[in-house]
Design brief:
By secondary structure, this protein is an alpha/beta fold. The chain has two domains: 123 residues, Rhodanese-like domain (Oxidized Rhodanese, domain 1, 3-Layer(aba) Sandwich); 131 residues, Oxidized Rhodanese, domain 1 (3-Layer(aba) Sandwich). Helices cover 30% and strands 13% of the residues. The protein has eleven helices and twelve strands. It holds the Pfam family Rhodanese. Keywords: Repeat, Transferase. This is Sulfurtransferase.
């Protein structure tokens, strides 16, 4: 099953009889509230999805920045978005699909046929297609989500991953090498992790690179696609975009959702700094 859909294919799907539910998941770390942009202009019929409240839950800092929502919370949100069983669901954003991928990752193994719009709303607008303003409320849906693991890895899974498979840090090199800490109490990476930034999978126009290109990038980074792969990022969002890219290339992964925001707050977890997985590390 494809994981992304381009603008022409979405336009064609919207003209067919099968219901299409559009999720506007605009969110960025520096602009976490995407509703104003949604209200100004969105794809007709799209509902706004609040990443921090619908695709995450409130938790303790030690759990990471954005803990996963409980199944009943996610199902209630999906019904509020108007999703029924059998619908085609398309998530999009305005930030190279990084936020939309969180919705894709949470729903894909739970019985929802969900795709990510390649290039997001920017690609839609570039095609000269219409947008609408204001809020759009959907009639309540009836979808029943499967109680399935979306592909989550725990903090212990992440610690073991370099020995049992491959651990991939998808943050930028400065964060990986420990030059930037941001809001976290420690800077660096999980010992043994390979650095493959999620931006490597994004083309200049904001679309996802081709499966062939992605596989080439993965292999060039030294990641063996046949091993068990665990991905992590800073807060548990960008890693789902890398999961989307890997999936498009035919490679299944797991995501350590606690991410660096959890690891760096967990006493007794080592922190590595430097350019490679073998560089120096210390206790934290």
């Amino acid at each position: 099953m494809p994981h992304v859909i381009d603008v022409p294919a979405l336009s064609a799907a919207l003209a067919e009889d099968r219901p299409v539910r559009l999720l506007d998941v605009r969110w960025r770390l520096d602009i976490p509230q995407g509703r104003p942009a949604y209200l100004a202009a969105h794809i007709p019929g799209a509902v706004y999805v609040d990443l921090e409240h619908d695709l995450s839950r409130a938790g303790h800092p030690e759990e990471g920045r954005f803990p996963l929502p409980a199944l009943d919370q996610l199902q209630s949100a999906a019904r509020r978005w108007g999703i029924d069983g059998g619908d085609l669901v398309v998530a999009y954003d305005d930030n190279d699909a990084v936020a939309a991928s969180r919705a894709w990752w949470l729903l894909r193994r739970r019985g929802v046929d969900i795709r990510v719009l390649d290039g997001g709303i920017r690609a839609w607008v570039r095609r000269g297609l219409p947008v609408e303003s204001g809020d759009h409320g959907a009639a309540p849906g009836t979808v029943r989500l499967l109680d399935e693991d979306p592909g989550a890895a725990s903090i212990d899974d992440a610690a073991r991953a370099p020995a049992t498979g491959v651990l991939v840090d998808v943050r930028g090199p400065d964060h990986y090498r420990g030059r930037v800490s941001g809001e976290d109490p420690a800077a660096g990476h999980i010992p043994g992790a390979v650095n493959l930034p999620t931006v490597a999978h994004i083309a200049g126009d904001g679309t996802l690179r081709s499966p062939r290109e992605i596989r080439g990038i993965i292999q060039a980074s030294g990641v063996d696609p046949d091993r068990d792969i665990v991905l992590y990022c800073g807060v548990g969002i960008a890693s789902t975009h890398s999961a989307l890219a890997f999936a498009e290339a035919g490679i299944e992964t797991r995501v350590y959702t606690g991410a660096w925001s959890q690891w760096s707050r967990s006493r007794g977890r080592a922190v590595a700094v430097g350019r490679t997985p073998a560089d120096a590390f210390s206790g934290w």
